[in-house]
Amino acid sequence: MSSLRVQLLSWMAFTLVGAICVNLYISFQTASATSDLITDRTLTASARVIAEDVMVDESGNVRVEIPPSALEMFDTGHRDRVYYQVMTAWGNLLTGFPDLPRSVAPDVGEDTLFRGEPVRVLTLFHPVVGLRDESDISVTVAVTQNGNTSLRNRLWLSDFTKQLVLVLLAGLVATLGLQRGLAPILRLRDLVRARGSTSLEPMEPEIVQTELRPLVHALNDHMERVQNQMAAQRRFVSNAAHQLRTPLALISTQASVAARETDPDKRDEALQALRNSTKQVTRLASQLLTLSRAEPGSRRPRKDRIDLVATGRLVLENHAEYALRRAIDLGLEADDAPIWIEGDGTMLREMVVNLLDNALRYTPDQGMVTMRIQRDGTYALLQIEDNGPGIPEPERAQVFERFYRVIGTTAEGSGLGLAIVRDVVDGAGGRVTLEDALGGGLLVTVRLPAA
Ligand SMILES: Nc1ncnc2c1ncn2[C@@H]1O[C@H](COP(=O)(O)OP(=O)(O)O)[C@@H](O)[C@H]1O
Ligand SMILES: [Mg+2]
Question: Model's pTM, two decimal places?
Answer without folding.
Answer: 0.63
